[in-house]
Amino acid sequence: xxxxxxxxxxxxxxxxxxxxxxxxxxxxxxxxxxxxxxxxxxxxxxxxxxxxxxxxxxxxxxxxxxxxxxxxxxxxxxxxxxxxxxxxxxxxxxxxxxxxxxxxxxxxxxxxxxxxxxxxxxxxxxxxxxxxxxxxxxxxxxxxxxxxxxxxxxxxxxxxxxxxxxxxxxxxxxxxxxxxxxxxxxxxxxxxxxxxxxxxxxxxxxxxxxxxxxxxxxxxxxxxxxxxxxxxxxxxxxxxxxxxxxxxxxxxxxxxxxxxxxxxxxxxxx
Length: 270
What we know:
- By secondary structure, this protein is of the alpha+beta class.
- It contains seven helices and twelve strands.
- It is globular, with a radius of gyration of 19 Å.
- Strands 5, 6, 7, 8, 9, 10, 11 and 12 form an eight-stranded antiparallel beta sheet that branches.
């Protein structure tokens, strides 16, 4: 089956950290970088291994900028942080600091090494994903991209984002609104609109709507196309570690819920 960009990012994060642990090469100041729309399962993997996670806006240039700030083109010794891995949901990954941008050649080599590592352990790549989900929780992601062309489309996208900011849906997928992270206004509020904290990211027209403890909807206009994009993410963290025999059924439930959510969101927007 085709592995999604989210799943490959998760597996490469897990593999890279595990191999460093096996070879006693996991630095105390190591860090992983991901974009805000890349799977939050990566955060759980990092937390379990005491690895710092940095989140950036969408675009690999932001990951490269963090690497530059730590390494200072190789002139700072020791570096502030040791870069371990960086990735985004659109199949963009980087191991090593040679490129400061996504590198498909190195990513392919890393996937080949990961596959060989799995084979030595009697696993397929799907089996590795099972291992990760059993240990850290099941995360499923989906997307909704709506094309709105021309000046009328641009204004419609602006209205959709403004409406979501002013009156976010109080409930989605049977869950109440629990948190809103507005990257444009640099604020985080709870479900009642009370300010909680500031956002430590550059201002950009991105809005995160959190429902319950396990559902996140991220809305952002595309920077290159006449589209508004929604990133849907749902998690199942109950009863960790999860029995391998339970994974399939719980994934089916999440997939079904995400499908219904996607249809409901499309109906709400259109």
